[in-house]
Amino acid sequence: MKEKVQALIDALKNGDSGVEAVVLFQNGEYVLEHRFIPPNERAIHSQTKSFVATAAGIAIDEGKLSLDTRILDLFPEYESIITDERVKALNLEHFLKMSSGFGSGFIMQDERRKGVAYPDYMKYLLSKPLVNEPGTKFCYSNADSHMIACMIERAVGEPLMIYCYDKIFSKLGIVYPVWETDPKGTPFGGSGLYLDVIDMMKLGVLYLNKGKWNGEQIVSENWVNLATQKQIDTDWDGDWSKGYGYQLWTLENHSGAFRFDGAYCQYSVVLPDENAVLATQCSEYQEAWKVRQAIIEHILNK
Question: Within 10 A of 38 (CB to CB), how many other CB atoms are there?
Fold first, then answer.
């Protein structure tokens, strides 16, 4: 595996992908770390979703949430703004596997920057009609992820940032991070968490180890097994996307493999057969898609 990753690094050295770091963790240690620029914390974009889903898993382990918990069970005050009766059935699992049924990606970055959903992201989403029956069709949406964040915060009875710090970040040795919030102060569930590549990939290491970190069970093995299974088919083509679990992508052609995925190739690819996690960090201003191509060529297709 180390040789494959070194070949990946060599292939990226003279390109214009904007790659900033490539790290390999295997057999319990960091065996290769190549920095193209000095270490820096950057937006991990949609890998944020996987940290939030992990917090949901912990809340489920604690009995504070369940996959069947409806959003209206926690937020009955929003019932009056619902225009489609089917929205009342939406539960945590629908959001975890991006199957709420709204049919479009909402509260994506451009919308947030323009204030489209201001000042209440939940009201913005729940007042919309559904296009599909809940649970039947995959549609990638930051709004689904943010509903998870809001549900966790209400269910555990404390700010999501505090809950995530106590239950995840501090346990993994991650310093108190920068994290974008919604206008009401809830950390944004779909994006906006800032981490260095090593801290980012620690979540992949946690999942590789079935929820354990330094001998402590942070999130249950049952949760890891559920989250990393293909829970729903996707419409995306190619080896890179063969289905979706709970806020992560499965790699169906690679036994048990999956990835935490952020825009511009902020990737943590977990390869259980190799007992390894491969992580990449990239600039937002160059052709980072070339890193994805290189991973497919040098790691996944060999």
Answer: 7
